[in-house]
Design a protein that fits this description.
Helix 6 (186-198) links the parallel strand 10 and strand 11 (203-212). This protein has 294 residues and is of the alpha/beta class. It is built from nine helices and 16 strands. The radius of gyration is 18 Å and the shape is globular. Helix 2 (74-83) packs parallel to helix 9 and helix 4 runs parallel beside helix 5 (149-160).
Length: 294
């Protein structure tokens, strides 16, 4: 089924990310990297293949991507870059998060980052989001609230002429594993994610949401959701999905083998304390992910 999505699971798809020349340091070709705005941006979906596809006699190997979220300081940002992580996430002015930073701090982190940075926000004001994109200049925005295809489309169109490589990501949420799923409509969530991709979404992030009193905490819970449900979503939506929520270096290979997402997204699973990353955990995570073939 054609959805009009420019980035998806088919390697034969065309679009801005696939059509831009991929080059490495010194101009040499390096798979999975895109030159953009003064630094290399990794392709969101490098080498996605269906099981059993081969080139000659050699099976194709999938390279899962890694995103480390909740970066609050330059030491951690440089450490995740040196460890071989693909993306960093900086949470901007989200009052409920202990990993949130202000506008100036976010801009300072992005300016000299060794890897692409996504700005995470729960705000839905187009004018403010456009200001974040143009004044902080991240690789993209990750929206944390309810999905709004109209806002995604508006942002995509606004950035397409000035920053073609700018990405819009969206978090979607499942209840914690083992909890009652009575209010969850899997078909409804599939439709919601599909509409977001049709509006121009670059990647979806599946995270865990938990109710704390009258408030719903979306992400940053350290809790897993039902990975069997996540696998269904990964298989049935028309674009790349990152898996988040309760992932650690100890369970990441199990998660990848069961869900087979485009990549994983971690925060608390590689921390020494909220907002402070643990370098040994990050290095262990990268080894586990790179050793896992899709």
């Amino acid at each position: 089924m054609h959805t009009g999505v420019t980035i998806g699971k088919d390697l034969n798809r065309t679009g801005p990310l696939f059509n831009r020349r991929r080059t490495g340091a010194g101009g040499s070709d390096r798979p999975g990297a895109i030159r953009g705005r003064g630094r290399e941006l990794p392709c969101v979906v490098p080498c996605l293949t269906k099981p059993g596809r081969r080139v000659g006699d050699a099976p194709l190997r999938k390279r899962y991507q890694i995103k480390i979220c909740g970066i609050t300081n330059r030491t951690d940002l440089e450490a995740v870059g040196a460890a071989g992580v693909d993306w960093a996430g900086v949470i901007l002015e989200v009052g409920s998060s202990p990993r949130s930073v202000g506008f100036s701090k976010a801009r300072a982190l992005v300016e000299t980052s060794p890897l692409p940075v996504l700005i995470l926000t729960d705000r839905r004001d187009f004018t403010w989001l456009y200001r974040v994109g143009t004044e902080i200049s991240p690789a993209g925005l990750q929206l944390l609230g309810e999905s709004d295809p109209g806002l995604i489309r508006q942002l995509k169109e606004a950035f397409s002429s000035t920053i073609p490589s700018f990405g819009i990501w969206q978090s979607f949420h499942l209840p914690p594993a083992g909890s009652f799923h009575g209010n969850l409509s899997l078909t409804g969530l599939i439709n919601e994610i599909t509409l977001a991709f049709q509006a121009g979404l670059q990647a979806a992030v599946l995270d865990t949401a938990v109710r704390l009193g009258n408030a719903l905490q979306r992400g940053g819970t350290g809790l897993k959701h039902d990975w069997k449900l996540a696998r269904i979503l990964v298989e049935r939506v028309p674009g790349p999905v990152f898996l988040a929520g309760g992932i650690t270096p100890d369970n990441v290979q199990t998660a990848l083998n069961l869900v087979d997402p485009a990549g994983v997204d971690l925060s608390s699973g590689v921390e020494a304390s909220p907002g402070k990353k643990d370098l040994l955990k990050i290095q262990s995570l990268v080894r586990q992910v790179r050793g896992c073939a899709g």
